[in-house]
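To whoever is on call:

I kicked off a structure prediction for a single chain this morning and the downstream step that reads the tokens threw a length-mismatch warning. I double-checked the sequence; it's 318 residues and nothing unusual in it as far as I can see. Pasting both halves so you can look.
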Amino acid sequence: MRSGEDVRTLGVVGTGAIGVSWVALGLEHGLDVVAWDPAEGAEERLRAQVAPLVEPGGRLRPSVSRPTQSSGALRFAESLDELGTTADLVLESGPERLEVKREIFAALDAAAAPDVLLTSSSSGLMPSTFQDACTRHPERVLVAHPFNPPQLMPLVEVVGGSATSPEAVEAALETLRHLGKRPIHIRREVPGHVANRLQAALWREAYHLVDEGIVSVADIDTAISDGPGLRWSLLGPFATQHLSGGPGGLGHVLEHLGPPMVEWWDDLGHPELTPELTERLVEGVGDELDGTPAEELVARRDQALRRLLEIKTDLGLG
């Protein structure tokens, strides 16, 4: 399987928020990028969004990120077949609909060389559900699920399907590390993979607490962003819990605080996402943001993410 430095041309299928960020990541790492999206006006929107990164001819501006690397060029393919025959690695970020995934991967499998990885950014679909649409080489199909925006966020979840080869998984892990990511290997397929399931568990209780009138939407966000979220951004939940145990570490925590935690588990809610609750959540976010444009928040968030990642790297926490 092509991996690491063997990947010189990145194929990006779908140019929504995730696809655009994959394109930017490839350009920043000096890769040529070929993109495809069937939506009307997709090429114009993509080029407008990456315009701050590239020269008029399509090549990365040397001052953007890694001036010592050769700069990559961006072009738009006219078909999936053209993209498949050109790319050394494919990152698919199309709609989260199984029938669409199956059509896309069948076409890519027919066009791409046998040693080209075909990966999906799917946030919850298991690769076995669309892998069998590839009749030539299903062993090179897997999920490489990033977190938005993947240009900045280090995490990528690598999930193999029932037909995925160990060589494909290793090639994906190696290539993602080469692109500056911190991939983790999900060893068994489950709906939603891992990080989204963890988020879903937190959201379930957050929705329940709001639904019961225990706390406001804004206070939930404060409880996480100014509480455990700060620590979790530096160390994960297990390492954070270990440090809270003092000299006894995680063993001490589980011995003394484990039983009460089990009681909390039994008391966690099971909310129904009714129209009324949905309206309450949406209104709560609106009140919290108080008219601040989403674009402004995204820009401030991404600036803070860059600084935080630099700090983690400097301190050996990233």
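Update from on-call: the warning came from a stale cache, not from the record. Cleared it. Sanity check on the structure: The first strand starts at residue 9 and ends at 13.
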